[in-house]
Amino acid sequence: MNKAEDIRAIIVEAVQAGRVSAGHTAKDAFKATERRLYALPTLLQKQAEDKDKLEEFLKYGPKERSKSITRFIKTGVRLTPEEIWEAVLTDMQATIAADEHEINTMERALEVIQDDAYYQTVVGRYIDNLPDEDVAKLIPCDTSTVWRNRKRLVQRLAVWLYGADALR
């Protein structure tokens, strides 16, 4: 092979790899959207519990043998109780803020589709954990209609969450 053929082979290989990658990107965005929807109810519950823990921490201080404290203590380094308290507080606040950001993002995404006649197909499946048969009775429609419209709406959510990457 000469140099031009080598370059051509490399380009063809790169284009094929790009096509394979692009096929996975849309599927990955769809699946990631589903994971985020399934996680939303648990994340809401966790956020409430974390806020209660933070309130308790601010009121009573850290527990003496807490795992959240021991991870800030390193061999050979002596932290003052105030430094430990500040580190634990910062960590708790960061966790709550990250969870809150995810919840807000998903709630805004759900607002995008809330006026759709088949919105309940998404909420029923991912938030309320209902089988398609029960969702079909609520709408009312056939279970295949539930599945088809849920897929369509999750795809819209994926585009809203991931942009053009969800289309490739």
Blueprint of the fold:
Elements: H1 3-60, H2 67-70, H3 81-113, H4 119-127, H5 132-138, H6 143-162
Total beta-strand segments: 0
How many helices? 6
Global structural class:
mainly alpha
The end-to-end span amounts to: 34 Å
Supply Rg. Answer: 24 Å
Largest sheet: none
Residue windows where pLDDT falls under 50 for at least 5 positions: none
Helix content: over 70%
Strand content: under 5%
What's the shape?
A: flat
How many domains make up the 3D coordinates?
1
User: Mean pLDDT score, rounded?
Assistant: 81
Order of helices and strands: HHHHHH
Keywords:
about 80% helix
Question: What would you say this structure looks like, in words?
Answer:
There is one protein chain. The protein is mainly alpha-helical. The chain has one domain (30-167). 78% of the residues lie in helices and 0% in strands. It has helices at residues 3-60, 67-70, 81-113, 119-127, 132-138, 143-162.
